[in-house]
Amino acid sequence: MRKICVTTIQDTSQDRRRGRPQELSREEREARILDAAERLFSEDPKGASMDAIAHAAGMSKRTLYEVFDSRIALFEGVIRRLRNSFLRTLKDSEHDLPVRQQLMRVFEPQQHGLDLSVPLALLRTIIIETPRHPELGEALLREGKAAGDAYVADILREAVRRGEIDVPDPDLAAEILGDMVCMNPLEKLLSPIDLVIEKKESTKRLEAAVDIFLSGVAVKP
User: Fold this and answer.
1) Which UniProt keywords apply (predicted)?
2) Using CA atoms, how far apart are residues 162 and 130, in angstroms rounded to an integer?
3) Is 159 exposed, middle or buried (0-12, 13-18, 19+ CB in 10 A)?
4) Do domains 25-69 and 88-217 have the same CATH topology?
5) What is the mean pLDDT of residues 129-156?
6) What is the pTM (predicted TM-score) of this model?
7) Cα gap 160→172, rounded to integer Å
8) What is the pLDDT of residue 211?
9) Which CATH superfamily is domain 25-69 in?
């Protein structure tokens, strides 16, 4: 009797494994779609249609549109995720740190270095398509640099309130600091060689940019 019971349990388990796969959550579907979109943008930007992205993500086009209801929404999702890989959100416990430490942590380079292949491929696609679809360029500016600058501006605004720095226009200052920290993409666009920036190189530029910036906005005695 015991052997029969064991056999029955094993067969039931195998039936479950052969059954319909467990449905993915919305977050899992979104991550899978964004992975596929980034891969296609880096490998074949012109071929990164909604059909191709759905196929690469292993799901139907209908399912893709349930997560991202338009190509613009998908672009925005890719841009937001790329922005978050360049700009880290501070933890609650880090908001009391001196402004230099906050800025260093926000712009902190990734451990494995900075891979520019996907951002540059996306940028090329948007540059090509923006004359016909200006909403793509607007999405890049809104979800990319503008959102990042706004977050940094809030940090600077709080540092002004605490008396750490003297910045009459935190929004403009954040925009300037962002340009100092991030290298101009033109060189890499024109000569797409060695698109991975090592962490050591990124950190060196970050430290120089933050220190030069803070020396210019320090509170005068």
Assistant:
1) DNA-binding, Transcription, Transcription regulation
2) 42
3) buried
4) no
5) 91
6) 0.77
7) 14
8) 97
9) Homeodomain-like (1.10.10.60)
